[in-house]
Amino acid sequence: MKITHNLFKYKNLTKFEIKKQQSLKLIAENIEKSLSYLSLITNLSLSTVKRYKKLLKAKKKLLSHIKINIIKEITKITDAEIELVFKNYLETCQFILNRDLTNNQLSIKTYFNSEYGSFIREKISYKTLVKRFNQLGLFNIHTTKRGRRVARLSKKKTSEDITLILKNYYQQIKQNEKQRQVLNLKKNLKFGEIVEIDAQLEPYLKNDKPLYLYHAIDVATGTLLAAWFEEQETTLGYQRLLEIVFKKYGFPKKIYTDKRRSFWGSENTQNSLWKSFK
Question: End-to-end CA distance of the chain, in Å?
């Protein structure tokens, strides 16, 4: 099939460029057709048609993404709506996490990507949401140092309602923390309730290679529950240590450890560790 589109708008292009533009137009108009059909009407090879088709689809996807972002920017979200989102976030934290047992909060990113944050994803991007939170002086324990600084220096004032909610929320967290500290004193604990685990270089054994001593201590009595030696400090080493503790004494209520990377390095590290006990 011969291409007979208007050539006036292509007058400053070479013959090759003209043919390419016309071919792209034909392919765009028949984008769902087979490669063989598109090759026939454009007089191009199958590989060229395939390449042009891929190029057009990528361009369409990019334009669609730009359009969505423009719509989000046009749909301006007020400060009051942002406060409601943060209020919903705090309520979600209380619903999912037991505030009597932990000071942890959901990261805003986890909340944003979950079913609880689905209503706001359609209106605003995650990056913009965090920025708006900080501009209103709203932040959580996961907020970066820069974000906290922006929040503290923010000239915008949050409403009395959200200010009161935040005040009560963080006061309750502090109160629960004090209560946990009292309950976790040695005199208030029973054997096996809390186990502390750690690993350190063994200074006494004289070997050619350094050895790490993994140990599990009962917090209430100071009893050594288990020990394990390895040449390196690894997640697998902690796993073997805990296997000894669990098989001999059962499961404690809490396990204390420091936050070194070999134990809490990433979400994948945590998953691989705890899946091994299932």
Answer: 65
Same domain, 174 and 87: yes
**Per-residue pLDDT tens digits for 225-237:** 998 888 888 888 8
Strand 224-230 relative to strand 212-218, pairing: antiparallel
Q: Are residue 49 and residue 117 in the same domain, yes or no?
A: no
* Any domain includes 3: no
Number of domains into which the chain is organized: 3
Give the pLDDT confidence of 143-167 residue by residue, as tens digits.
888 888 888 887 677 778 777 877 8
Residues 85 and 175 in one domain: yes
10-14, 79-83, 163-167, 220-224: the lowest-pLDDT one: 10-14
For the range 251-258, what are the long-range contacts, defined as Cβ-Cβ under 8 Å and sequence gap of 24 or more?
252/192, 252/193, 252/194, 252/195, 253/193, 253/194, 254/193, 254/194, 254/195, 255/194, 255/195, 255/196, 255/197, 256/194, 256/195, 256/196, 256/197, 256/219, 257/196, 257/197, 257/198, 258/198
Which element (helix H / strand E) includes 224?
Answer: strand 224-230
Domain, as residue range, for 34: 8-74
Report phi then psi at 177, rounded to 5. Answer: -65, -45
What are the φ/ψ torsions at residue 137 (nearest 5 degrees)?
80, 20
The predicted model scores a pTM of 0.44
| Shared domain check, 152 and 103 | yes
Of the candidates 23, 47, 74, which is a domain's last residue?
74
